[in-house]
Amino acid sequence: MMDFEAQRIRRTRVVWVVVLSVLVPVAAFVVGVNWVQCLLLGTATATVGGLLALLPAGEDVPWEPPDDQIADGARREVTRLSWTLGGHENRVGEAPLRRLRELAVTRLAARGVQVDDPAGRETAARLLGDQVWAVLTAETGPPPRFDTFVRCVDALERLDTLPSGDHPDHAHRPRPYDNPTVPGAPSW
C-alpha cells in the first residue's frame, strides 16, 4: 500500500499526462498539422506520459559512492603514477620526468657525484650514458617517449650494480619491447 505522499504524486502525474495528451494534439492541429499526425502525437504523449507516471513516486534513490575501503598494503600512488606515464603521442608527463630527475640527483649523490659541479656532470654523463644524461638535463623540447623514459630508469637502476670504473653503454640489456625495426625508434 502506498503512503499518502506517493499517491498524491502519482495522481498529479496522471492529471498532467491527460492534460498534455489533449493539449499537444490540439496545439499541433491549430498550427496546421494533419489530423492523423495530431492523433499520433496525442497517442505518443499519452504513452510516454503513462510510462513516466508508472515510475515509483516519492522514492529518493541516492547514488551511493563505491566502497572506498583500501585493502591492507594497497596504495594509490602506483596507479596515479602509471596514469601520468602515458601521455600524448606516448610521451611521459612532466611529473614523472621531474621525479626521475630528482631520483637521478639522489642516486648520483650516493655515488659521490655532484651534478652541480662541471666535473660531476661529466662523470654523470659517463656513468649514465650521454643519451640518458641528455634526457635528464634537457630543459626544452618535447618530453621523452615512454621507451626512452624506461631506458633512463634502467640506467639509474644499473648505477647500483656498476663498479666504479664501468661504463653502462656497453652493459645495455635488451628489453622485450625494444624493437629496432620500428621507424623513429631511438637507436641506442
From TrEMBL:
- Stretches of Basic and acidic residues bias are at 161-171
Please give the residue ranges the record annotates as the region Disordered: 161-188
This chain belongs to the protein called DUF4129 domain-containing protein
Q: Which organism is it from?
A: Microlunatus panaciterrae
Organism lineage string: Bacteria, Bacillati, Actinomycetota, Actinomycetes, Propionibacteriales
